[in-house]
Structures are given as structure tokens and as C-alpha cells.
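Follow-up to my post from last week.
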Amino acid sequence: MPSERKKLDLAAVRALLNGKTNGRDYWRNLEDLASTPEFEELMEREFPRQAIGWSEDEDSVEGRRNFLKMMGASLALAGLTACTRQPTEHIAPYVRQPEELVPGRPLFYATATTLNGVATGVLAESHEGRPTKIEGNPEHPGSLGAADAFMQASVLTMYDPDRSKTLSYNGEIRGWGDFFSTLGEILAVQRTKSGAGIRILTETITSPTMANQIAAIQKLYPAAKFHQWEPAGTHSARAGATQAFGQPVNTYYDLSKANVIVALDSDFLASGHGSLRYARQFSARRRVQGGQTSMNRLYAVEPLPSSTGARADHRLPLRANDIEEFAWALATNLKVANGPTKGENWDIYKWIPGIGKDLQQNAGASLVIAGDYQPPIVHALAHAMNEKLGNVGKTVFYTDPLEVNAQDQLASLQDLVKDLDAGAVDLLLILGGNPAFNAPVELGMGDRLQKAHMRAHLSLYDDETSEICQWRLPETHYLETWGDARAFDGTVTLQQPLIQPLYEGRSALQLLQMLTVDPEASPYAIVKGYWGSQHKGADFENWWRKSVHDGLIADSALPTKTPALHGGAISSPSEKPKMAGKLEVIFRPDPSIYDGRFANNGWLQELPKPVTKITWDNAAIMSPATAHQLGVLKETLNAGDEGVPMVELNYRGRTIKAPVWAQPGQVDGCVVLHLGYGRTRAGRTGTGMGFNPYGFRTANALWHDVGLIAKQTSGSYEIATTQNDHVLDTRRQIIQSGTLAEYLKDPESIRAGAEGPPRGLTMYPEWKYEGYAWGMAIDLNACTGCSACIAACQAENNIAVVGKDQVRRGRAMHWLRVDSYYHGGVNNPEIHNQPVPCMQCENAPCELVCPVQATNHSAEGLNDMVYNRCVGTRYCSNNCPYKVRRFNFYLFSDYETPSLKLLHNPDVTVRSRGVMEKCTYCVQRINHAKIEAEKEGRTVREGEIQTACQATCPTEAIVFGDTNDPNSRVSKMKAEKLNYGLLADLNTRPRTTYLASLRNPNPELEA
Amino acid sequence: MSQIFHHSTNTFARITIFGAIFVIAFLTWAFDELNRSAYETRATVPREQPVPFSHAHHAGGMGIDCRYCHTGVETSSFANIPPTKTCMNCHSQIWSTSPTLEPVRASFRTGDSILWTRVNDLPDFVYFNHSIHVNKGVGCEICHGRVDKMPLTWQEASLQMDWCLECHRHPERVLRPREFVTTMGYTPAGDQEEIGRRLMNEYHIRSTRELTSCSTCHR
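User reply:
Got it. Predicted complex:
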């Protein structure tokens, strides 16, 4: 009960901030670190808060009598429902069955997703024409078989019942014919003035087909203007390249050859173009297994702990503003710039000589990566350093820009604003994007856009921009239409539809086509027609079929080039703005809903954000010390059920109220605001969640600025975080880690203390698993905590979304969770991520306590869960030491919404209320592979079964296989000296084990 | 104090107490019987269909192999209900004007599926796979009965779990050589159990423990 909880006192808070770790090696959060009695209690509990408590709408129901009434009623109802007969079902076979389609067997098609215009190849699984699941395309250079959480969740967006479904004009439903004739009239007028009144605003475009269309339109309407705006685009990288080389270039990396990497506020392992590939290459160089004894070394400098920072061997928390100084200092050390060698903030300079030496020793095999959100000069300095180190052509590659008409998007947007103000815009076509919501605030796009005489917005959702446009045009999802786009290295990736548009949508390609001489061409004809004109040589049809089948056009990567560094690229450091008692404000796209485009996606909203584990919200994220300065730390830590305190943020005369989140490892003196929340017209899921930091974001400070004032204000806010859910006792060797040097010296030392009891220590006879014995090994040294596995699991296993209130009660249904642990002081702790699925214990405590035998052991060692037997006593969950079982407290699954019925994986039961569920090791995939193998009269091959989490993991941290086969990857991993079981001392014999995390610190910096 | 109850009340009480046992036993038995009855399982009850398709005529009379229509049975979990096109392969030539077949022609004309009523309907939490059973020598008639003698198709077995487990515990009682899988009215050439055990070995049938693991059918 909240009132009885002992509060953290001020002394404990002070001790925390002084870095006193209370003898704790690893800790989950600040309360844990301070060892408060509440946290001790939390650990003892299966659920963090009143699991038996009622939902908000049921607060009036309380007391024993009501409980008994409900029990009686539900027993009676349960008895009655058991007496129903199966309802009659119908079968609707095909009229003409497609040749390659066998009902009951899924088909996979290669297609492409884009983010910020840049494509990643994926394989979409189709069940009788319904796309249900996304996997990475192993043949695509940007995917290598992996997919991120956005891709995994994209199928939900397609089936989202809130999507824009009809075309409307001023709120009245119209048809495409009406729009077409209106457009025709406007175009007829425009043709006489060579299109001077036409403006087309898009997101970043990399599609070669669209480039061709734009060229054709510009030929017809030479005075028409094209603008691009991507709120979380690579504006700085583009400007930085222009500054360094005098021309915009696209930069990409090869991490497989990099021994030493310096990340300047770059989260290259989990966000940005090519991150899936980088994560794969990076982790392959850290796998100290099978004889490999070397590791790369990563230095990360960043304000907020990111997935990349969590994997760094040396992480230096610096304000975003100080990173420029750090870059100057490093560049000076490497003799490519004339910057300071010391300054007020010693933190910036303390590691420079060591890092500089390390880089130089690995010249040609090192890498400096500037983050997308750092100013152009940092990019220019990184280019100069990479050139000096001889990395260009080895670990760094340059190509022409990926975008069509690479332009300064901000200048382009401001140009549009000028024209709008001048009343020069007769027709404004907004193709995708949501500029009214996400353009810099001082442009006042919401009002400005209305100065265009005719406005049309093509969009997946009826959003903030649609609201102010006369024509609202429904857009097709990428799984519904043809298209193409370039990947991180320029590889042309083909986007192939899997399903007819669910609604009346059309694509941006089709809309642009309306402005050309052949306005009614189908998307297929447009894309194929363009590539037909590009293809040299005969046999186009075969080439085209192969390209569509592979999902990419072979050898279409842009040729690399080596642009020369501009003479005056790097002058001297500019004056750094003074803090003057104010705070730094940092804007970042949200890790789960990005720039706001995924706000209506329940899977992403409920996905615990890496590191903070916040769901459904954003917050003013600051370091505990900064929170303490503002006088809100104590309340933040004692938040409990009452909610965290609010602060009033004041920046450039604008004010926002935001809840406080104290994040260990964040640098002092800055506040991170994640963009994308505070949507007013996102749909039923996304509208009204969080607050809107775009209200602060101006054109000259897109990513960070000094000058934020924060002060505590009245009110509190309930944040749903999963960091306090399913807590394990950190004193019990949950995380094992060490350094590479320690490991090489004494391999057994890393996992010391985590050994299980000897196998003979049991009263029962040893059970021999004949045949297969499925097991999993999770390499903590590879996991970045990106959480793609959670999204993949959710899509594969029909896991329901429960909503913020239920998440707050610890009832999130994710079968797989990624726990974050900290090690060391509050200011700059090491961060360890640990994915926790069901351990599939051989001696499973859950099985013994089930009164109805709903959970049993399979012959292959799986801990089976039989939903139809489960009566919901929750004894199993109570008895699970790993807290991996999830209970359907309510009817979380959606059986009603027609479009969402299509989304479900037909091979997995959709669970109803009152049923326990948990990770099954994707038993549907195991069974499928076993059946296929049996039919061919062989055993299941190594690698044939990939669990959903394993398949999507960018770093290959999760490996699944047959532990009875000594040659399987999983057996080899389990034989490593880094292998340990979670809570193995309980003699549960978990089938899921972990490989301890290793770091490779630079001994020179350790002193 | 005088007696409130007469002597005979003792007998009455005895009858009630012991009688209750019989009453409860009877009710349990009745419920169990009802639960297994054709009323509950709908086994052996012919089902109305939009077109009165006769397996007796097509499979029995004409001798069309099961797999001519149920094309997925060897490769997929679902045996497949044939597309309208399969019907029209023949019925565009024969009985092409029959009023009974109008729904079939209408489907072919309009592109709308014929809405068949499902006969063998397992609960949604059971994941049955046709292909593995057929490939391991479980004949169609083992589960579906003598389809070649069904004018209107009915469900032959109860499709209840104990019925599934009978074979999963004793596969040797039902296995037949693969080449006889679609044969109707198959008689084993010798002792069934002996042949069954030989086939179990030959077809690498998994152990009973594996076949009766929960996740074999439930997931």
C-alpha cells in the first residue's frame, strides 16, 4: 500500500549521487541502488503493484463480498460455457487457386521498408494472401537477415483500423475521379504559366523511379518546385559533408575491419541507415568464442545512454554541445585541426591522448563516426580524422548522395514558407509526412500551409496535416503497392506488394504520375517501365523477375568515390555558448515511435524503450544530479503509485510541462526530450499520449541548444515503465561480466559464482532426453538492447497490447523482456542488457504446482503451455523464479476488429482472458521444421529452426538449436567458459543460458 | 424430551444419503455420455451443403483419387478444399446445365467462393497437420471413415482428445503402407499390429512420449 511505504530520505539520495554503491555490484534502478525496503519487497513479488487490484474503471468494486460474488458468477459462467457446441464454420475455397499457393503453407516475398527514405530489404510472410510477419532479407546488404522493431511492427500499421480509408474533400467523401478532375483543371491553368504555382512537399526520396518522374514533371512544369522535409533526417551529415568536401556525399562504414571505433554521439548500432548491418559486423568482432581471442574497442561519447553507449568499452557522458569540443580536441590530437588541448571541462580532455594513440596505432583499421544529430562541423572533423587515419576506402566509404535532389531540407522548407507567404502557391501536394506537426515551430506550418490555395495531403493517417488540407488522400502501405528505394549503400531495393490495397489508397508514385503525360499508369507499370528503360541488354523479363524475387537490383550499389577534403573545411572552433545557469535541451527521435509517425502503433507504443524502459510516453529525461538540483529527485524516486513530479520547461519564451525521468548515466545539465509524442490527431492509440517537444524545436536548433530553464511545478504524472517489473535479485549473479584481459588470463573467472549444483544432486533419477533437446544461448556480449526481438516475438506469437494502465500494473504481455542492469556509480555506470525469455527449465518449478496439468514437459525439453487447460490459478507464475509467465488479466486479445483478425499468425493460438501464457521457443516453428524433416526422412538440420527473436536479432546474440547435437552452434556456445545459467543455483537447469559480457577497455585509460 | 422424528425417518435418511451417491454417479455418467454423444460432437450427422456433393458418387462410384481434389494433403497442414476450377474441369463438360450445379457455375462466373460447411472441425487450439499423418502411413479412412460410402459427408470420429490419443499411444494399430493411404476399405495383409510395428520402425515414428507431448498438437 502506497501510504505504508518507506520513503527515500535525503541522505540516501545524497549518498546515491556521491557514487556510493552500497556494496551493490549490479543494480536495476536508483531505488535498488539505495537498497530501499520497497525495492526489496518488489523483488519478492511476482507483480510490482497490486496485481489483484482492479482497473481504473473498477475502483468502486472492492471488498470481500464483491470478490466472492464475482468468483461465484465466474464459476457459474465458466461451467455453462463448457456446455456449448462448436459453432458451425464455413470454408471458402479459391475459385481459381494461384499456382504456387498451397493453403496452409505460408509464402515469403521480398519487399522493402523505408525509414527516412532509405530502404531495407525484408521478407514478408504471407498466409493465403495476408501478410502477417516481417523478417529481414538475408540477401539484402542493409538487412543481412535482421529487422528492427519498426519493421516488425509495420504489419500492425497496415491492419490499423484507424488508417485513412476514404478520400475526402473538405470532410465530404469523394472518389479518386473527383480529385483527378479537380487536379486536371488546376494543371490546365498551371501549364500556361509553366507550373509556377505548383509545390510538391515530400519526405526524403531515394527512389530512382520517383527521380525519373520528378524529372519528367519538371520538364512539363519547369517552374514547379519540389521540397523535402524529414524531421529526423540527416541534415547535419549532409551539411557536414558539404562543408568537408564541397559536395554532399553519402557515408557508410565497414565495421568488420575496424579495430577501434570512436562514436561521437552516434547510436550506429541501433539507429540510422545501415545500423542492422553495422550491428552485425560490430558484434562479430566481439565474439570471443571458438578460438577468437581479440575484440574491437568502442569509445562512445554521448549525453543520453544509448544502445551503442551500453556496448561501449569506454563511455563518456558529455552534453551534446560539448561533443563538438571533444571532436576538436581529438582532431587536434590527430593533427588535422588546430583546436584547444585543454579547457574548462577536464572530462573532455582526459581521454584524448589515449584515444588518439589507440586510433593511430590502428590507422586504416579504425573509425570515427559522427552522430546524425551532431552539428556539421563534427561531421567535417570526423571526415578529416578518417582521412588522416587512412580509413577511407577501408572502413569508411563515400558515394554520391542517396537522395534525389540532395538539398538542404531546412532551406527548402523555408523557401516554401516564403512562397506560401507571397501567395504564390496554387497547388500544394504533400506526399506523406506530417509537416503541420513536425516542422520547426517558428515556421508555424499549421497556419502557413493554409495559404496555399489548393492543398492535398496523401497520408496513411488522417493526421494534423490532413486536418488543414482540403483534399485528404488515403495512402497505400508499403505492403500494398509497388515501389523502389535505395539502401544505405545505394543498392536499389524493390518494394513488392503482398496484398491489394485494403482501402482506396494510392501511393506517392501514383500521385506524381498524375502530373505526367501518362496519368493513369498503374504502380507496377510505373516501376517496371522505368527499370525497363534502364536495363541494358536483352532478356529484361528474366532479369526483372529475378530482381523482384531477390528484392533488390543486383550490383546497383552506388560506386564509391574518394572526395578530396576541402581546403578551408575546418577553420577554428567557434565560440561555445555559455550555460549561464541554464540547461541544455536535446531533441531526439523517439526510440519507439520515431518522429511521431508510429504513434498509432500499439506494439511500438508498448515496446519498452531501450535503457529507460518507458512505454506509452515521453519524459523530460535528466541525470539524477540535475533532478536533484531542480529539487525533484526525491519525488521521482519515491514516485510509486502517485506518479512522478512535473517540471515546467521554458525555452526561448515557450513553455511545456513535462514529467521527470531521472536516468543514470545521463550527463548532468541537460534534458533530453523525445520527439513524436503529444499528437493531437494520430488515431485512437496515439492521440494525447505524452507531450510535444516539437513545440520547442526551431530551425536553428534542430537537435540541441543551451538555454532551457526548468523548474518544478504542481501536479504529478503516471509513467508506465517496465524497469521495475519482473525484478530479479541483482545480488544473485544475474549478470556476469568482466574484461577481455581477465578472461584470457583465467577463463573460468568471469562466471565464478554462477555455477549450478552438480547434476547428481537430486533425489530423482536422471532423465535422458533422446532425440532433440532444444536450447538457447544468449550472448550478452552481443546484445545491444535494441528490443527488436520483443517486437518480433509480439508479431510471431499474437501477443496482445494491454495499454498504459495495465503496463503500470506490471501486466505487459511481452513473452520476452530485455532487462537493463547498471554497474558502478550513478553518473556513468556500465549498462548491461539481458533478454529474458522463458528459461525452459529442465526441472521446471512452474510445472509442479499446476493443479490442472496445463503446463507440462515435452519429450524434447520444452516447457509446454496448454492454454485450453489453463484455469488461471497463476500458481505457475507465482512459482517461476525468472518471472517470465504472463497472465491475461482481461480480454487483451482483439477478436472483434475485422482488419486485426487478418494480422494474427494462424499457427499460434490467440489467447483469451484468464489464461497464462509464456515463451514457447516458437514451438510452431519447431513443429513446422520437424514435420518437414520427417517428411523428407531426415533429422532437423542445424539452423533450420530460427525462433522469431533469433531471426530478427541484428547482432545474432540469440542462438537456438539442438543441444543434443555437439556440433550445433548452440552446443558450442554453451560449451564456452563464458556460459552461465540464470539462478542456476536453484537447480532448475535452464535450457536458456547466457554468455557473460566482456569489455575490452584501454589499459591506458583505466588508470 | 419426546422424540421429534419417528423411527422410519432413519430409513428415509439412509436412503437419501446413499441414494445421493447413485444420483451423482448417474448425473456424471449422463453428462459424460452427453459429452461424447453425436449430439455434442456431431459425429455421423450428415451436413447440409450449398451443393449436395456426394463423395459416394465421386470417390466411390467414379473412383477419383482423394488427392485429385485435396491437393494439399501430402504437403500442407490443410488438405485443401478444391477451388471451383477443379469442379469445372469436368462439369463444364458433363452435367453442365444441371440446376443442382448452378452454385458451382455461379461461383466460376462471379469469382465468389462456394461457401461450404465445415464437416471435420477441430477446435482452434489444436494444430492438426494432414501432411505428416499421410506421409507416415495414416490412411484417410482412419479418421474420415468410408467417405466413398457417404452420399453427404459426415464427420466419422468424435474428434475428441481421447480419440486422438488412442493412435498417438498405439500407432501400430492403424499404420498402413504409404501406398494404401488413400485406399478405402483397406485390409491388412496379415496381422495389423505386426505390420504396424514394422512400419513404425520403417517410417521412424516418434516415441509415444514425443507423440503425446502437449506441444505436438497444442501451441
